[in-house]
Amino acid sequence: MKKIGVLTSGGDAPGMNAAIRSVVRKAIYHGIEVYGIKYGYQGLIDGDIEKMELGSVGDIIQRGGTKLYSARCEEFKTEEGQLKGIEQMKKHGIEGLIAIGGDGTFMGAKKITEKGYPCIGVPGTIDNDIPGTDFTIGFDTALNTIIDAIDKIRDTATSHERTFIIEVMGRDAGDLALWAGLADGAESIIIPEFDDDFEDIIDRLKRGHDRGKKHSIIIVAEGVGSAVDLGQKIDEAAGLESRVTVLGHTQRGGSPSAADRVLASRLGAYAVDLLLNGQAGRMVGIQQNKLVDHDIVEILNSKHEIDFDMYRLSKELSI
Length: 319
Ligand code: F6P
Hints:
Subcellular location: Cytoplasm
Binding site for Mg(2+): 103
Strand content: 15-25%
Number of strands: 11
Domain Phosphofructokinase: 3-275
EC number: 2.7.1.11
InterPro entries: ATP_PFK (IPR022953), ATP_PFK_prok-type (IPR012003), PFKA_ATP_prok (IPR012828), Phosphofructokinase_CS (IPR015912), Phosphofructokinase_dom (IPR000023), PKF_sf (IPR035966)
Number of helices: 11
Order of helices and strands: EHEHEHEHEHEHEHEHEHEEHH
Number of domains: 2
Largest sheet: 7 strands, mixed
Bound molecules: 6-O-phosphono-beta-D-fructofuranose
Distance between the termini: 58 Å
Shape: elongated
CATH architecture of the largest domain: 3-Layer(aba) Sandwich
């Protein structure tokens, strides 16, 4: 293998730049040419491809977002779109591809691999919703962004003795909400993986109130539904005048944490190793701090599991 491509696709995540840098530098270290494909699979279809050099990835390890831009591409879900992408790979002499993103990205990587062009997936999403890896690139930074926001909200919640309901991202996964809730001592954490009893949320609020605690933080994962609707329900049931904050896309930006930079550097380099060792259709990950790789089809067919022990602990600590 003499030429490989790299792209980022789906929602961006802090640390994607560090992963791109790692792929480019590791490949060049092994004498391989690297081509950056812009705007994910859309750029592959359109031929928005350029050669990357050592200097192309200088000064990006600390930057959020992705230097290669990102997109969600409907056309690449079709056979026609995939064949257009393969044509571009042929035209540029690209023999293998590293795709950084979430499950949509891996679906594209699977399709290209099936058409004879080896792909390796690197998990990059703030949601931490990918099976086969303990952490995805971007999760730690997003979590710290959330913690920073909640700490600030807590100040005003205390001053005004208010209940705040804070909605965090995560798509269908509750990891960001659970970790943030545990890290910030939230009174309730509401995530899609468990059917929370509404009465239990109200009881917790009332119990806290009875022992003189007049402010509360409730964290809701976006996968459960709207925090605004939940806030109204809580106000009616508990006789409160709560405030709702939807953190939104602030969670996707910012300089990656040290943990994300290191994770991205390790995963990107490992993906290059796999391609050079003749592997195809794999996803790299980290489990118990060891680099691992899995069949990408298996990953696409399995479901990320939330850590039940952590969820139970969060309940125990917020009695
Ligand atoms: O997958 C990352 C993510 O930020 C999710 O947490 C969220 O549901 C979604 O992307 C938002 O997507 P968009 O940026 O397209 O609105």
